[in-house]
Amino acid sequence: MSGWKNQQTGDDGQALVTSALTRAKFLVGSVTPDPGEDLWVEVDGRRNIAEGAFPLRALLQVKATAEAIGECVLDLDVDDLRRWAAQPLPVFVVGVSTANEAYFVKSIDDIVSDDLQGRNVFELRTTTARVRINPTNDVASTIRRTVRDPLPAAQASSCWRL
């Protein structure tokens, strides 16, 4: 598949992810022009706005396929991994099959620790890295849980002792 078909599959994948997250009370917007992330999201955005609560935001890169898949293995550009690792917001790679609406999600932190075995992305000498994105039955809950609780409790409490 090439040209407009690839772009259409990408657009369809972003629409599926946007719809799933919007139904779960996320605020979702497109990042334009596309600098390497497709969507920004805010967990429980409207409620947080109404309550004056701290905004819990993340960036998403959506990778879509028109094939029905049961697993998602991607060769990602190392320059993209570097960009995402340097972001101040959590970044997720979201795989989606437009054929069977199967979702896969993995944070950049988990990609670095699991797929890169903790290696520093800025010291990688390859141009791509193979990563396995985790299947999920609920893309919104997976992202919500990670954005709400980015650090283990012991680490989080020590961050506030300045």
Question: What would you say about this model in short?
Answer:
The protein is of the alpha+beta class and 162 residues long. It has helices at residues 4-23, 45-51, 78-86, 108-115, 139-148, 153-159; strands spanning 27-30, 39-42, 57-65, 72-77, 91-97, 103-107, 128-136. It starts with a helix and ends with a helix.
Q: What report would you give on this structure?
A:
The protein has helices at 4-23, 45-51, 78-86, 108-115, 139-148, 153-159, and strands spanning 27-30, 39-42, 57-65, 72-77, 91-97, 103-107, 128-136. The protein is an alpha+beta fold. The protein has a single domain (4-159), classed as Trna Endonuclease, Chain: A, domain 1, CATH 3.40.1350. A hairpin with an 8-residue loop joins β1 and β2 (39-42). Mean pLDDT is 88; it is low at 152-162.
List the helices and strands and how they pair.
Blueprint: H1 4-23, E1 27-30, E2 39-42, H2 45-51, E3 57-65, E4 72-77, H3 78-86, E5 91-97, E6 103-107, H4 108-115, E7 128-136, H5 139-148, H6 153-159
Parallel strand pairs: 3-5
Antiparallel strand pairs: 1-2, 2-3, 4-7, 5-6, 6-7
Keywords for this structure?
162 residues; alpha+beta; seven-stranded mixed β-sheet; 7 strands
User: Any idea of the CATH topology?
Assistant: Trna Endonuclease, Chain: A, domain 1
Element order, helices and strands?
A: HEEHEEHEEHEHH
CATH architecture: 3-Layer(aba) Sandwich
Give the count of structural domains. 1
**Beta-strand residue fraction:** 25-35%
Q: Major β-sheet, in short?
A: 7 strands, mixed
Number of strands: 7
Global morphology: globular
List the strand order in the largest sheet. 1-2-3-5-6-7-4
Text of the CATH class: Alpha Beta
Name the poorly predicted regions: 152-162
